[in-house]
Amino acid sequence: MTTALTANGGQIGNCGACMDARGMGEDRLIEGAHRSSMAELADWTAWADQVINV
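Above: the chain sequence. Below: its structure as tokens.
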């Protein structure tokens, strides 16, 4: 599902603080995902008509 999302222009942001807490480097992210931040999440939430949070 994430491959289809990114293939169609979707973006996947992973919480940087959560990654740090788990000792996870950017090299562990799937293709099309990036290290994100609360500021980016706030921007996306303000921009979006609907938000999916898992």
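The beta strands are 12-15, 33-36.
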